[in-house]
Amino acid sequence: MADGKRKGITEGMPLIQYAVEGQGPCRRLASSETGTVDVVNRQAWEVIENQVAAARARVVAGEASVLLYYMAANQMDPALLAKYMGIACWRVKRHLKPRHFARLPAHLLTGYARLFKINVDDLRQGRFLAAVYEKKE
Amino acid sequence: MDCALDFQHKQSAHCESGVAAALVSHHGAELSEAMAFGIGGGLFFGYFPFIRINGLPLATYRCATGNILKRLTSNLGFTLKQHTFRKPQPAMALLDDYLAQGMPVGLQTSVYWLPYFPKAYRFHFNGHNLVVYGKEGNNYLISDPVFPMTVTCPAEDLVRARFAAGALAPKGRMYVLAGGDAEPDLGAGIMDGLGVVSRTMLKQPFFLIGVRGIRFLAGRLAKWPERLGRQRADLHLGHLVRMQEEIGTGGGGFRFLFADFLKQSGDLLDIAPLSASALAFSHIGDRWRDFAIMAARICKGRALEGDTYEAMAALMMECAALEEQAFGTLLGLVEESR
Question: Which residues are bridge partners to B109 per DSSP?
Fold first, then answer.
């Protein structure tokens, strides 16, 4: 995130903003002018980053499975993750525990891996990879 | 199947009114974004603390997603054909089908799964609208109204975006316009849009909606620091500012966009008081923006002297008073025109 700081949240993309100026109310606002939005957007991301860091620490400490990290990194909670997986919420909560996660059948692992755009092996080995939105095609 | 329809891409401030304006323009009735927003009755205020987004209360400055399109198309005499699906395959098949027939298709999607969005906007927000106007190999050609240029998106990602889960789940929702008049009666549409917005803002009996809603939120906001503690209060405040100023609002919680609509309508129908109201609303938008700027200073921990929650509540009360007056004038104009 640090490298994106100076460019503003739109990464240099101009947006349409409306403001009354003389005759035509419409004008383009350069991304550097969106300072207000940058502040509050940054604030929202800080909350997410803290959640991810906390999740990661719990996984490292062995209190939770690596799934907790991927769930936090992708801004999900058990209920949302369960909806994406098409399974019950209590099952997702179970999979967040290391000992249940270790016994997860292949089809569920594949499902999680596909959702987070990672390999099954990454999940098995417990690697911390970037969230979906960090990936560049 | 490769195809690219002749579709005029135009960057807009707000996704739904941008898509609505582009689709209506494509069908022969040239329409600006602000007109689409106004005739669609897009302006609103509602504070719904029982609906939580990332654990923070929802405050909205616009009507529910889909309503602008519905009202705009019915006001201008178009038929809006909408579909939702349970499974992705038929949803993508019908999309290809419409494209093959030469019809651009509007989609409701999540922004989280769209790879062309900058990282900062990738939240689980499912109310985004865009137009698909072609396909090249495995990529769909997309006119996304908040972007300066057209973009492309791989089919797998578009499927995910169309079938995102969670609040406002799109369920593959798609729509095309049919029928319609190349020269619709804008005057009646403008008056309907104005009437709906001013009545909701002034006459809604529910205390969380309209001008009453703004006053209620102002009262709540003043007490946030003592009720929630400083840190949570700042988060609530930041969330409010995001709803008001972030991508897709045109700034000032849509008030500037609405002002532009009033100005264009005033010129078109030659009603001077409408143009005067446009100025009133851009002034109101400025006050909302002052509020956002003060809030941003507080969130950043760089509060100036006089930047307090009480001062912000007072600013919001002022917005409420100004809006009460401005919508009163508009309601009078609508009733006069009957």
Answer: B128
The 10s digit of each residue's pLDDT in B28-72 is: 888 999 999 999 999 999 999 988 877 888 899 988 888 999 999
Our CA-based measurement puts residue B287 at a distance from the nearest CA of chain A, in whole angstroms, of 12
Tokens standing for residue B204 = 């809604």
Structural domains counted in chain B? 2
pLDDT tens string B177-204: 987 776 788 899 999 999 999 999 999 8
Residue A61 has a CB neighbour count (10 Å cut-off) of 8
So what's the ipTM on this one? 0.86
Put simply, the answer to whether B123 touches A75 (Cβ < 8 Å) is yes
- State both tokens at B146: 């908040």
To the question of domain A36-134 being in CATH 1.10.287, the answer is no
B49 assigned to some structural domain: no
The DSSP 8-state label assigned to residue B63 in this structure reads: P
B272 C-beta neighbours (distance < 10 Å), count: 8
Q: Say what the pLDDT of residue A8 is.
A: 66
Residues B149 and B215 in one domain: no
* Numbers of helices and strands, H then E, in chain A: 7, 2
Asked if B245 lies within 8 A of A133 by C-beta distance, the reply is no
Residue B106 burial (10 A CB sphere; 0-12, 13-18, 19+): buried
